[in-house]
Amino acid sequence: MSLGPVELLLIKFPGNQFKGEIVPALEELITTNTIRVLDILFLKKDSAGDLTLVEISEIEEDEVYDAFDPLVPEVEGFLSESDALLLAQSLEPNSSAALMLFENVWATRFRDAVVNANGQVLLNERIPRQVIDTLIAEQLQANAS
Protein backbone atom coordinates (compact mmCIF):
# COMPACT_ATOMS: atom_id res chain seq x y z
CA MET A 1 0.00 0.00 0.00
CA SER A 2 1.37 3.40 -0.99
CA LEU A 3 1.29 5.90 1.81
CA GLY A 4 1.99 9.59 1.49
CA PRO A 5 3.82 11.62 4.11
CA VAL A 6 2.30 11.31 7.58
CA GLU A 7 2.04 14.18 10.05
CA LEU A 8 1.14 14.49 13.70
CA LEU A 9 -0.87 17.56 14.72
CA LEU A 10 -1.85 18.71 18.21
CA ILE A 11 -4.43 21.50 18.36
CA LYS A 12 -5.09 23.15 21.72
CA PHE A 13 -8.39 24.75 22.75
CA PRO A 14 -7.75 26.97 25.81
CA GLY A 15 -10.58 27.10 28.29
CA ASN A 16 -12.12 24.03 26.63
CA GLN A 17 -13.67 26.39 24.09
CA PHE A 18 -14.05 24.06 21.12
CA LYS A 19 -16.14 25.56 18.36
CA GLY A 20 -17.42 23.69 15.35
CA GLU A 21 -15.55 25.68 12.69
CA ILE A 22 -12.84 23.06 12.49
CA VAL A 23 -15.18 20.28 11.34
CA PRO A 24 -16.16 21.74 7.91
CA ALA A 25 -12.52 22.62 7.19
CA LEU A 26 -11.41 19.09 8.08
CA GLU A 27 -14.27 17.63 6.05
CA GLU A 28 -13.15 19.62 2.99
CA LEU A 29 -9.58 18.30 3.30
CA ILE A 30 -10.87 14.74 3.53
CA THR A 31 -13.50 14.89 0.77
CA THR A 32 -11.05 16.52 -1.66
CA ASN A 33 -8.64 13.65 -0.96
CA THR A 34 -6.02 16.05 0.39
CA ILE A 35 -5.58 14.18 3.67
CA ARG A 36 -6.73 10.93 5.28
CA VAL A 37 -7.04 10.83 9.05
CA LEU A 38 -5.26 7.76 10.38
CA ASP A 39 -6.04 8.32 14.03
CA ILE A 40 -7.48 10.98 16.30
CA LEU A 41 -7.61 11.34 20.07
CA PHE A 42 -9.24 14.02 22.16
CA LEU A 43 -7.57 15.20 25.36
CA LYS A 44 -9.16 17.21 28.13
CA LYS A 45 -7.59 18.65 31.29
CA ASP A 46 -9.93 19.76 34.02
CA SER A 47 -9.26 22.70 36.33
CA ALA A 48 -7.27 20.42 38.69
CA GLY A 49 -5.04 19.31 35.81
CA ASP A 50 -6.44 15.77 35.62
CA LEU A 51 -6.30 14.42 32.08
CA THR A 52 -8.97 12.46 30.23
CA LEU A 53 -8.24 10.78 26.88
CA VAL A 54 -11.12 10.03 24.55
CA GLU A 55 -11.08 7.96 21.36
CA ILE A 56 -13.49 9.07 18.65
CA SER A 57 -15.61 5.96 19.27
CA GLU A 58 -15.93 6.90 22.97
CA ILE A 59 -17.30 10.41 22.46
CA GLU A 60 -20.51 10.77 24.43
CA GLU A 61 -21.75 14.07 23.05
CA ASP A 62 -23.85 13.08 20.02
CA GLU A 63 -23.23 16.33 18.13
CA VAL A 64 -19.45 16.03 18.37
CA TYR A 65 -19.45 12.32 17.53
CA ASP A 66 -21.82 12.81 14.60
CA ALA A 67 -19.56 15.56 13.23
CA PHE A 68 -16.33 13.56 13.39
CA ASP A 69 -17.50 9.97 12.81
CA PRO A 70 -18.10 10.20 9.04
CA LEU A 71 -14.79 12.02 8.62
CA VAL A 72 -12.77 9.28 10.30
CA PRO A 73 -14.51 6.03 9.33
CA GLU A 74 -11.57 3.71 9.97
CA VAL A 75 -9.29 4.82 12.76
CA GLU A 76 -6.09 2.81 12.54
CA GLY A 77 -5.14 3.05 16.22
CA PHE A 78 -1.61 4.30 15.60
CA LEU A 79 -1.70 6.79 18.47
CA SER A 80 -1.13 5.33 21.90
CA GLU A 81 -2.04 6.51 25.35
CA SER A 82 1.65 7.15 26.05
CA ASP A 83 1.84 9.42 22.95
CA ALA A 84 -1.09 11.43 24.22
CA LEU A 85 0.24 11.62 27.79
CA LEU A 86 3.59 12.91 26.59
CA LEU A 87 2.03 15.59 24.39
CA ALA A 88 -0.61 16.52 26.98
CA GLN A 89 2.11 17.89 29.24
CA SER A 90 1.95 21.10 27.22
CA LEU A 91 -1.75 21.61 28.04
CA GLU A 92 -2.71 23.98 30.81
CA PRO A 93 -5.50 23.05 33.23
CA ASN A 94 -9.00 23.72 31.91
CA SER A 95 -8.06 23.15 28.28
CA SER A 96 -8.58 20.50 25.67
CA ALA A 97 -6.85 19.32 22.52
CA ALA A 98 -7.24 17.15 19.46
CA LEU A 99 -4.31 14.92 18.56
CA MET A 100 -4.48 13.85 14.94
CA LEU A 101 -2.27 11.63 12.81
CA PHE A 102 -2.96 12.10 9.12
CA GLU A 103 -1.61 11.13 5.73
CA ASN A 104 -0.98 13.78 3.10
CA VAL A 105 -2.79 11.90 0.35
CA TRP A 106 -2.04 14.66 -2.16
CA ALA A 107 1.66 13.69 -2.03
CA THR A 108 1.28 9.92 -2.49
CA ARG A 109 1.67 9.96 -6.28
CA PHE A 110 4.81 12.10 -6.02
CA ARG A 111 6.19 9.85 -3.28
CA ASP A 112 5.64 6.78 -5.49
CA ALA A 113 7.35 8.52 -8.43
CA VAL A 114 10.39 9.31 -6.26
CA VAL A 115 10.58 5.70 -5.04
CA ASN A 116 10.17 4.32 -8.58
CA ALA A 117 12.99 6.60 -9.76
CA ASN A 118 15.22 5.26 -6.96
CA GLY A 119 15.20 8.71 -5.41
CA GLN A 120 15.95 9.23 -1.75
CA VAL A 121 14.52 12.05 0.32
CA LEU A 122 17.38 13.72 2.15
CA LEU A 123 15.37 16.39 3.93
CA ASN A 124 11.69 16.95 4.52
CA GLU A 125 10.92 19.58 7.12
CA ARG A 126 7.87 21.68 7.76
CA ILE A 127 8.75 25.32 8.32
CA PRO A 128 6.67 26.92 11.11
CA ARG A 129 4.31 29.69 9.99
CA GLN A 130 5.97 32.21 12.32
CA VAL A 131 9.29 31.69 10.52
CA ILE A 132 7.68 32.29 7.12
CA ASP A 133 5.86 35.39 8.42
CA THR A 134 9.18 36.76 9.68
CA LEU A 135 10.89 36.07 6.35
CA ILE A 136 8.08 37.76 4.43
CA ALA A 137 8.18 40.80 6.70
CA GLU A 138 11.98 41.05 6.31
CA GLN A 139 11.66 40.76 2.54
CA LEU A 140 8.96 43.43 2.40
CA GLN A 141 11.09 45.71 4.54
CA ALA A 142 14.15 45.14 2.35
CA ASN A 143 12.12 45.85 -0.82
CA ALA A 144 10.75 49.05 0.72
CA SER A 145 14.27 50.35 1.40
What features would you highlight for this structure?
145 residues; alpha+beta; four-stranded antiparallel sheet; 5 helices
Summarize the structure.
By secondary structure, the chain is of the alpha+beta class. The protein has one domain (6-116).
Describe, in plain words, how this protein is organized in 3D:
The protein has 145 residues and is of the alpha+beta class. It has one domain. It is 34% helix and 23% strand. The chain has 5 helices and 4 strands. The protein has a 4-stranded antiparallel sheet, covered by helices on one side. The radius of gyration is 18 Å and the shape is globular. It starts with 5 loop residues before the first strand and ends with a helix. The relative contact order is 0.23. The model has no long low-confidence stretch (mean pLDDT 84).
